[in-house]
């Protein structure tokens, strides 16, 4: 479902992306059963981790090391899984966005693995993980306007546009909404991350999507 440019893979040995497609979904604003599961997972995470332990956790360490190699300070722009876990350990609940986003956020919090998800109906052509070209534009979720990339950043493109800056920001154009019926889910591996854990994270997210988003 996604091809990795050989030059990028050569530079970042161990870079892997795993993909799943889930069709026939019905995305809701909220599901009380999912909210209850989120509370249980939050309690489990608080029982096995402290804020002081987060920075040395091997999964978060792998993402932090990758961020540094990209020139991103992970103490300012947290890797997605780490940000969710830190939120939980600070006493705040996982956010409620919609049931689909909440499902893969939950899997990310449980495993630490960064996830990406896209409305499959808005994708066109082959997906490629590659280096950005200087001046390419990207409109991320929550952006008020597109930004121009300096070039060299790992990005995912389809046949028409950039859909992600890898592995931490997805496109506003292909985001999951209440109208989404087909989802492409990515488990975002980085050098040093156990591929089996990355697969487990994706399988957890798919399981949650099937449990809470397929009626």
Question: Any chance you could write out the topology, listing elements then pairs?
Answer:
Layout lengths: L1 E3 L1 H6 L5 E7 L8 H17 L2 H4 L3 H13 L9 H10 L9 H13 L2 E6 L7 E5 L5 E2 L8 E2 L5 E4 L4 E4 L3 E2 L11 E7 L6 H18 L3
Helix pairs in contact: 2-6, 5-6, 6-7
Mind explaining what this structure looks like?
The chain is of the alpha+beta class. It has a domain at 2-32 and 96-212: Phenylalanyl-tRNA Synthetase, Chain B, domain 3. It is built from 7 helices and 10 strands. The chain has helices at residues 6-11, 32-48, 51-54, 58-70, 80-89, 99-111, 195-212; strands at residues 2-4, 17-23, 114-119, 127-131, 137-138, 147-148, 154-157, 162-165, 169-170, 182-188. A 5-stranded mixed β-sheet has the order 1-4-7-8-9. A 3-stranded antiparallel β-sheet has the order 2-10-3, with helices on one face. The protein has a two-stranded antiparallel sheet with strand order 5-6. Helix 2 runs parallel beside helix 6, helix 5 (80-89) crosses helix 6 and helix 6 (99-111) packs antiparallel against helix 7 (195-212). The longest helix is centred in the C-terminal third of the chain and has 18 residues, at 195-212. The two termini are 26 Å apart.
List the main descriptive attributes of the protein structure presented here.
single chain; 215 residues; alpha+beta; Phenylalanyl-tRNA Synthetase, Chain B, domain 3; 5-stranded mixed β-sheet; 3-stranded antiparallel β-sheet
Mean pLDDT: 97
Major β-sheet strand ordering: 1-4-7-8-9
Strand count: 10
What is the percent of helical residues?
25-40%
Which CATH architecture of the domain at 2-32 and 96-212 is right? Answer: 3-Layer(bba) Sandwich
Output the CATH homologous superfamily of the domain at 2-32 and 96-212.
Phenylalanyl-trna Synthetase, Chain B, domain 3
Distance between the termini: 26 Å
